[in-house]
Structure formats: structure tokens, C-alpha cells
């Protein structure tokens, strides 16, 4: 998850990766998605899939906020950081070069579907608890208290993300 050291040529010629401006925001998303309460109180499975699901839930909220008040370029850079991170995670898990692209493609499809589901739910057009059961719990509803915890935390997180000024969000303050 640490950012790669700049290459010799990029340091020599002063070129920087524009996506790196989004690194503090991406890191904050990862921290939020890994918060213990999701797994202990919200009963999100503490597995690779469960952690992916929580990171995507947080990333989706931030991308929705950028869609609303940011620029398309910021969303692209943030999404590219996610793709790079997921690619690296898959490789660390031993997934070979031949199939990494397929896995990343499925992850991007999941992100797109979840953005749509969370957009509808957070705008009041669909029940949030249904989106959570489908996306955080893979169709297996947890006990009602855990689902209520996850729903309350997602809603309060969304409210915080809407309240934090965009310039602060872009520096990693996701509320």
C-alpha cells in the first residue's frame, strides 16, 4: 500500500504521477474500510472478500461525493489507485499474470455495481439494508443488530463525507 519510490528518471526530469495527489485520500479509504467495528459489530466477514467489500463500500461513497462536487479527473485518479492496489494485492496472493486482469475486471465490475446500488440507497431511491445484504454480506443477512450497525455507520459516513469540504477530502479527510 505504500507508494512506490519515484524512479531516477522521474526525479531527474521532475515528472510526477498526478495520481499521487490522491494517495492520502485513498489511504484514508483503506483505513476506514479496515476499521474493526465493521467486522466485530457489523459482522462483515473478516476475510479477503469481506475486507474488499468494506473498502469498496467506502470507496463508492467517496466516488459518489466526487461525482457530485469534484472533477472527473479526481475520480479517475482515485479509481486508478484502487486498480493498482488490487492488482498488487492479487499478485501478493499468488494470482498469476495470466488471470490478474480477469480478477481486476471483476473487481471493477463489482465497484460499478456497488456505486449504483449505494447511490440509489443513499439518495433514498432504494433500501440501504438490501444493498448492504447483497454487497457486504454476499446475500447472507447477518443478525439484525449487525445489519443495523452497518446501515447506521454507512449513513453517518455518507453524512460526514457530504459535510467535509471537498478540498479537505482530497487531502485525506473523509469525515
Report on this structure.
The protein is built from nine helices and no strands. Helix 2 (23-33) packs across helix 4, helix 4 runs parallel beside helix 8 and helix 6 (97-122) runs antiparallel to helix 7 (128-135). It has helices spanning 8-13, 23-33, 36-40, 48-69, 72-92, 97-122, 128-135, 144-163, 166-169. By secondary structure, the chain is mainly alpha-helical.
Order of helices and strands: HHHHHHHHH
Distance between the termini: 21 Å
What class would the helix/strand composition place it in?
A: mainly alpha
Q: Low-confidence stretches at least 5 residues in length (pLDDT < 50)?
A: none
Total number of distinct structural domains: 1
State mean pLDDT (0 to 100 scale).
88
Fraction in helix: over 70%
Percent range for β-strand residues:
under 5%
Number of strands: 0
Instruction: Tell me about the largest β-sheet.
Output: none
Task: Determine the number of helices (DSSP H or I, runs of at least 4 residues).
Answer: 9
- Which overall shape is indicated by the principal axes computed on the Cα atoms? globular
Radius of gyration, Cα only, in angstroms?
A: 17 Å
